[in-house]
Specification:
This protein is α/β, with parallel strands linked by helices. It contains eleven helices and eleven strands. It has one domain (3-276): Divalent-metal-dependent TIM barrel enzymes (TIM Barrel), CATH 3.20.20.150. The longest helix is centred in the middle third of the chain and has 22 residues, at 112-133.
């Protein structure tokens, strides 16, 4: 099964200039990872040194960009569509087959139904562009427009393109008050990428980054497999529908990243080995 590592796992290190692409690539090889998910913000700010990845024998499983298609102004939406186009072009350059998009969130003056239609129209345009480039765009559940298996399936039905798929992000399901295992099962047949991340309810006095759920609870990112999400159940739900990856490990915590990422990979490898034997 295809396992990769998201660049976001080292977000704090990149932001503090304690990590660059060459060091990231070297760290991946040390951890036995030969496939990565690039995040455009870190990739561009680090100078896009594709040779560093290739020198370490690293391939790119997906390329992420943070789009927001919910805007009253048509020109603002068009700018976000162009951002998706640019990500597709960059994916071709780095050899990725998948581009990860975000839907955006409802804003003042925009009804939910209109926001959802803006996402559908924008993603449809991106999917057409991706099809011509031989790329698949995947939509990640995020914020309050597209956040569940039900809304992801609706977008997929409306876009109706072989160049469109879903990124099952298990922490988003949790934060939206949903059961990640059930959501993964319901969207598994559309899944082209899966973010394996994890978190637990934060203890009193927690000083790290707070992930707030729709129910008002505060969560803290953990090594994948150490939090509250049934990662084993999510993987089994996806695999039972035929999904074989990429499973992208995305560490969301604020503890020392290298140790937490290594623990996440160890946990996931053990689960994948177990699932293979079923």
């Amino acid at each position: 099964m295809n396992l990769c590592l998201s660049m976001w796992s080292f977000a704090l290190d990149f932001q503090r200039h304690q990590m660059d692409v060459e060091r990231f690539a070297a760290t991946c090889r040390e951890m036995g990872i030969d496939s990565v998910e690039l995040v455009d913000y870190f990739w561009i700010s680090a100078g896009q040194p594709l040779s560093s990845l290739r020198d370490f024998g690293i391939r790119v499983c997906a390329y992420d960009t943070a789009t927001d298609f919910v805007h009253l102004d048509p020109e603002s939406r068009q700018q976000q569509i162009k951002l998706a186009y640019a990500a597709i072009e960059e994916a071709v350059r780095v050899g990725a087959e998948i581009v990860r998009l975000l839907p955006g969130k409802v804003k003042n003056g925009i009804a939910y139904e209109d926001a959802l239609q803006m996402v559908v129209e924008s993603v449809s345009s991106a999917a057409r562009y991706a099809h011509n480039a031989g790329i698949t765009v995947v939509l990640e559940p995020h914020e309050d427009v597209v956040y569940s298996a039900e809304t992801l399936r609706y977008v997929a039905e409306q876009v109706n393109s072989t160049a469109f798929g879903v990124n099952a992000d298990v922490c988003t399901f949790l934060l939206m008050g949903l059961d990640p295992v059930r959501e993964c099962a319901e969207v598994a047949d559309l899944c082209k990428l899966a973010h394996l991340n994890d978190m637990r309810r934060a203890r009193k006095g927690y000083q790290g980054y707070p992930y707030r759920s729709v129910t008002g609870e505060v969560y803290a990112g953990t090594a994948v497999g150490d939090g509250e999400i049934d990662i084993r159940g999510c993987i089994k739900a996806l695999v039972s529908a035929g999904f074989r990856g990429p499973f992208s490990v995305e560490y969301l915590g604020t503890e020392k990243a290298t140790a937490s990422v290594q623990r996440s990979l160890d946990n996931i490898r053990n689960i994948l080995q177990e699932v293979r034997g079923l």
